[in-house]
Amino acid sequence: MDDCVFCKIATHDIKASIVYEDDSVVAFEDINPQLPTHVLVIPKRHYWHIGDDVPEQLIGHIYSIATEVASIKGVDKTGYRLVTNVGEDGRQTVLHFHVHVLGGAQMPIRMGPAD
Hints:
The protein has a single domain, classed as HIT-like (HIT family, subunit A). Helices cover 20% and strands 22% of the residues. It is built from 2 helices and 5 strands. A 5-stranded antiparallel beta sheet has the order 1-2-3-5-4. 25% of the residues are buried.
C-alpha cells in the first residue's frame, strides 16, 4: 500500500528502531510508547487488520514473534500485554494489522482516553 506508514517501515523507506526482522514480519519500537516497553509487530505484507484474510500461519508467527520480542526486551518474566486493535471502535489508528507488545511497568486497568 503506497501511503501506509507501516508498509514503508517494512520496506525500510521510513526509519524505525527495529527490534526483530525476518522474511515475513518486522518488530519496531512505537514512536509514542504507552509503557517503557512498547513494540509493534507487523507483517511485511499489507493487511488492514487481523480479520482481513490474514493466513492463520502468519497470525501464529506474529504472536510467536511477539513473545520473542517480550524476551528480547526483558519483560517475559515480569509480564506483558499483547494487543491488537481492529477498526475505528477498536481504536486502530494505523490501518495495517499489528500487535502491540506492552510491558516494563504495572499495566493500567484501561489504556487510552475513553472519549
